[in-house]
Amino acid sequence: MADVVLNNVRKSYGGVRAVRNVELHVAPGEFVTLLGPSGCGKTTCLRMVAGFVEPDAGQIVIGGRDVTRAPPYQRNAGMVFQSYALFPHKTVAANIAFGLKMRGVGRAEAGQRTQEALKLVRLEQLADRYPSELSGGQKQRVALARAVVIRPQVLLLDEPLGALDLKLREELQVEIKRVQSMLGITTLFVTHDQGEALSMSDRVAVMRDGEIVQIDVPNALYEHPNTEYVANFVGRTNLMDVVVRGQQADGSYRVESVAAPGVTFEVAGRQHFAFENDERCLLAVRPEHVNVGGDQPNTTRARVTDVSYRGSTWNVELQSDRTVPFTALVRSGHRAPAKGDTVLLTWAASRCFLLKAEKTDSLSPGAKP
Q1: Which of 295, 291, 300, 297 shows the shortest CA–CA distance to 337?
Q2: Mean pLDDT of the chain, nearest integer
Q3: What letter does residue 288 receive in the DSSP assignment?
Q4: pLDDT digits (tens, 9 = 90+) for 68-82
Q5: 3-class SS of residue 83
Q6: Cα–Cα dist 215/24, whole Å
Q7: What b/e string do you get for 162-187 counting C-beta neighbours within 10 Å, with b at 16 or more?
Q8: Alpha-carbon distance 36 to 39, whole Å?
Q9: Which domains does the chain have, with CATH numbers?
């Protein structure tokens, strides 16, 4: 196993700075995902690690060796693309064995390693088929087998599930993670899909405008985003404009609604930043932590503007009496309010957090920075 290090890596295309001063360390055997919208620089970072793009500045190190200027074939990295990139005229087995042939591996050993790779991705029965005879999921498994059969130090995956339907994506998420865990291979994964990132990764690095703005384990990233951008991109978040009115001895905060002066809320638990009295900031609470009714210290009245059924939950859109839009999730099996109802929304002090207010409006998930 080898680690991957990006030291102050930068890349521009003309006057566009695609990657800005990226610092990243992927530990041996770790699965790290670069997550962000289109144009944020995540794929450029991956292609620089692979050797397909040369950085303007900075250093890339794989397994303790500086490979910044080394060609791709000298980096011992396996790459999986969204488009599969299989040879249409070669069988599944021949596609997988291609990298071994190019490395001069003997026929007997190549045959054995190809069979091991087929077994790893559960495609032993399809060895003699051609890509045109495979489903999208099967093609991606072949691409994965081809990447790992060469026994690379690092596995690089560039949005490999983007062309698949939802059910197949979920199945391949499990498959890729299973293979990665069995091999213990250091993996760098690129996606714009937060669900993929959270379910598959040891750590997730959220990117914006060519920079990593937060990196953490999935649950910490979701429960404790450090900016409004991360809170909005990784999941959905209800936000209220508030002013700090006091910090308690236990570290909790009392804040006052800007939209409704005199209405206060309590915020408990670890915060990324310290906030001063009279500082304007944002109170954030995830939809699944908002209760319709109940007995919690934080409350606001709201009118239901829309209700949609999502299978495991009802998605309830509301407009609060503080003129703030809210989203709440009601589990299936519980009564959901009807459109037009006025309800009481409540949430626990430990289920909300404070964020610094940002001076930009380009924060919507999927928006290009």
Answers
A1: 291
A2: 91
A3: G
A4: 999 998 999 999 988
A5: coil
A6: 9
A7: eebeeebbeebbebbbebbeebebbb
A8: 8
A9: 4-228 (3.40.50.300), 236-356 (2.40.50.140)
